[in-house]
Amino acid sequence: MDHLFRQRRISVPKRTSELVALVAVSCTLFLFLHTRDLSTKLRRMQGRLNDDITAFNHLTDRIQTDRIEHAFASAQEYKEALEAIRRNTGAERSKPQRTLEAQLEESREEEEQEYTDELLVPEPWELNNTARAGVELLFFNRVPKVGSQTFMELLRRLSIKNQFGFHRDAVQRVETIRLAPPDQEILVNLVSAHEPPASYIKHVCYTNFTRYGYPSPIYVNVVRDPVERVISWYYYVRAPWYYVERKRAFPDLPLPDPAWLKKDFETCVLSGDRECRYLEGETHEGIGDHRRQTLFFCGHEPQCTPFNTAAALQRAKRVVEEQYAVVGVLEDMNSTLQALQAYIPRFFDGALKLYWEELNTFNRINRNAFKPPVSEAVKQIVRANFTREIEFYEFCKQRLHMQLRALRDPTITLPTTTRSQRRRRAHRLVGRK
């Protein structure tokens, strides 16, 4: 029997044993690595699940509650949905649940903030200088290159629809923006001579009519981003058709230097050309300088002439607040036309509808196809010198939006003076002369 067992015993070489041991170690290492990989994937899946729960929490947190009953319903739905997620996944929330009391407290705070905001919004009559005008005479002392040609054509068409006189100044050889006191009086007499209701349009600084014994007209104007406006003006006075029109009106005018005509805006700025330096406090009179948008609102006084100064800025702001019915913004035509319609309906009723119906026609007015694009880098260089002009532009934008916000209640009727009141006021002013 022992002999039989000895015959069945198999001899295993030493190298084979080493191979088996190596395979065993390899399998163990493979199983270890595979287990670690599975654990990593499991942690990733759990992380994504927690992210989904967090996103769900944020979504429910954003639910706004207007009534207490609605708040309880939202909380209950939130709780049930959260419990369902936990049952199906076993995952814990990664963000603590907000209490219902906290939601209600935030809702109350939002309501109080809205109420506070409403208290800070002026009533429409506080922003309505139309009611303070002494006569139904609209004066558009238009700023150059703010779309004023478009607004002028719009006003001409509205004059037919709304039955008022349309008048504008004649083309001048040299257009003077600032006037001496005797010339201001001549302008006041000329504008006031038109039978109300009427409109008058001219490139000129704000002029105080009451100083010369006449009732104040309804002042309107439009502003534009100051840098974009000065670029537009730069290429406007170099456009071929501009000099053709000027030459046709005044044949003896000399033609400009071709080198000046060919000079582009970017080269002008980067080379430090005097035309494009825009130095604070600099005064440059005449048709060649239209950088001062504030000048048209500040007025004819000497303090209004230096470029980008604090005194001119503050005076221009005060005049806008006290004298202008609406100052529109070229970049926001909808808001501009809505404010004009609401605050000056006698002249601008139907303006928004007419503008959009004839948009293709209005867009072609005074468009300069010879204006090349200007890089943002060069614009930023120019903006550094237009700080107060930009501040005035932003001020006008805020005022326009405040006027529209004040009209949030459609039942409000804007106050207007009666014709008899305006006549009595005009007689009192004339009697003081």
Automatic annotation (TrEMBL):
Listed name of the protein: Heparan sulfate 2-O-sulfotransferase pipe
Keywords on record: Glycoprotein, Golgi apparatus, Membrane, Signal-anchor, Transferase, Transmembrane, Transmembrane helix
Alphabetized InterPro entries for the sequence: Heparan_SO4_2-O-STrfase, P-loop_NTPase, Sulfotransferase
Region described as Disordered: spans on this chain: 88-113
Localization per record: Golgi apparatus membrane
Keyword hit for Phosphoprotein: no
Recorded GO CC terms: Golgi membrane
Pfam families, per the entry: Sulfotransfer_2 (PF03567)
Topology term for the membrane: Single-pass type II membrane protein
Family in the record: Belongs to the sulfotransferase 3 family.
First-listed, main subcellular location of the protein, grouped into a coarse class: Golgi
Regions of compositional bias (Acidic residues) in chain numbering: 103-113
Superkingdom of source: Eukaryota
GO molecular function: sulfotransferase activity
Taxonomic path: Eukaryota, Metazoa, Ecdysozoa, Arthropoda, Hexapoda
